[in-house]
């Protein structure tokens, strides 16, 4: 235990030996939490729309004003022919064309170069047109409707995210991304860094066991990860007013396990690398793949079957699901037993591999 204490003290001194790393550990999470939730959004706004009004009645003008009042669309042009509107699409000044014909039939033409923007924009516009048609129908309906006519009233109720705020969905996942980047990259550069400067040779001639050596490498990054997670909680509560519906203890419990997983992956890469450059490229490759197929930005159910199969061995996927469940639904450990078992399995496997892959030559 005394030797382990000295090893942990050595690792902490190595982390804080460079004045830039402690600053990075604070500045990077702060900047990411303040910028990413605004940039990483699937909500499309400020869609440029060009309207072709062939009706020229009060009803068509009323529809145009309704579209202008929407927060999703910017009216960039109003013309009397579809050919003029197409020039706006070709020049990039318009994303959608709405043609209002004399009988008040509508035609929506969407620029599908950006499929997400074109599809969502057309869907938003179709919703506005449907609402407008319902308003006109109610105004022109007979005053005395038959008593037998059924009345259908739809009441919408959104669970867990009642205001449909995409930031609430993204912030817990961004916290996991930050934890993965920091607690994955730093351990990946640790052992290979000692190889390059030659200090690893001094460790190899000591009676320190491989297990104690790897444990001493893991504990400082485990502490750093918990501190970074706490900083993210403070920023989320102070800037976005977002606090978990579940327990902080449950989050910290899962975070403690997940940090061991990603730190173990970093140490495995560091053990098998001979240079810092090699370790950085391998870790960067692994993290990019993990992020893209984790469900961070796109639903896993929308991926091809072969990609969904790969996500089964991606620990990032499970912790993102856990964070969103705790933050949005208030789930407890009993509700999260399947991902808990998977993360424990990953932690055991990666750290045993890290111990075995460190070759101590005396």
Characterization of this structure:
The chain contains 14 helices and four strands. It is of the alpha/beta class and 362 residues long. Strands 2-1-3-4 form a four-stranded mixed β-sheet, with helices on both faces.
Strand pairing plus helix content: what structural class? alpha/beta
| Topology order in helix (H) and strand (E) letters | HHEHEHEEHHHHHHHHHH
Low-confidence stretches: none
- The pLDDT mean sits at 83
Shape: elongated
Strand content: 5-15%
Q: Largest beta sheet, briefly?
A: 4 strands, mixed
Task: Note the main attributes of this structure.
362 residues, four-stranded mixed sheet
List the helices and strands and how they pair.
Blueprint: H1 2-17, H2 20-39, E1 47-53, H3 58-69, E2 73-79, H4 82-91, E3 96-100, E4 106-110, H5 115-140, H6 166-188, H7 190-197, H8 199-204, H9 210-239, H10 248-272, H11 276-292, H12 305-311, H13 315-329, H14 337-357
Parallel strand pairs: 1-2, 1-3
Antiparallel strand pairs: 3-4
Short description:
The protein has 362 residues and is of the alpha/beta class. The chain is built from 14 helices and 4 strands.
């Amino acid at each position: 235990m005394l030797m382990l204490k000295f090893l942990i003290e050595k690792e902490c001194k190595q982390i804080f030996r460079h004045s830039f790393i402690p600053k990075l550990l604070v500045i990077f999470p702060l900047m990411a939490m303040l910028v990413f939730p605004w940039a990483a959004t699937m909500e499309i706004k400020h869609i440029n729309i060009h309207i072709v009004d062939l009706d020229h009645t009060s009803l068509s003008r009323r529809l145009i004003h309704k579209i202008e009042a929407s927060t999703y669309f910017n009216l960039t042009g109003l013309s009397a022919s579809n050919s003029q509107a197409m020039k706006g699409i070709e020049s990039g000044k318009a994303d959608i064309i709405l043609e209002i014909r004399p009988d008040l039939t509508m035609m929506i033409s969407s620029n599908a170069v950006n499929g997400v923007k074109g599809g969502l924009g057309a869907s938003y516009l179709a919703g506005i047109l449907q609402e407008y048609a319902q308003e006109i129908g109610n105004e022109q309906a007979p005053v005395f409707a038959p008593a037998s006519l059924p009345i259908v009233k739809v009441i919408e109720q959104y669970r867990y995210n009642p205001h449909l705020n995409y930031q609430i969905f993204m912030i817990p996942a961004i916290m996991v991304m930050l934890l993965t980047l920091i607690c994955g990259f730093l351990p990946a550069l640790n052992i290979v860094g000692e190889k390059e400067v030659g200090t690893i040779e001094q460790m190899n001639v000591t009676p320190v066991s491989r297990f104690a050596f790897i444990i001493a490498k893991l504990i400082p990054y485990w502490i750093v990860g918990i501190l970074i997670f706490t900083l993210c909680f403070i920023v989320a509560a102070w800037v976005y007013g977002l606090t978990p519906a579940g327990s902080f203890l449950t989050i910290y419990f899962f975070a403690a396990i997940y940090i061991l997983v990603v730190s173990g992956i970093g140490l495995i890469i560091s053990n098998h690398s001979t240079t810092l450059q090699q370790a950085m490229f391998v870790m960067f490759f692994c993290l990019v793949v993990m992020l893209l197929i984790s469900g961070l930005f796109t639903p896993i159910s929308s991926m091809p079957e072969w990609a969904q199969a790969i996500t089964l061995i991606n620990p990032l996927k499970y912790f993102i699901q856990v964070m969103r469940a705790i933050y949005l639904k208030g789930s407890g450990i009993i509700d999260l037993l399947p991902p808990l078992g998977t993360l424990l399995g990953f932690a055991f496997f990666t750290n045993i591999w890290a111990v075995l892959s460190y070759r101590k030559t005396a």
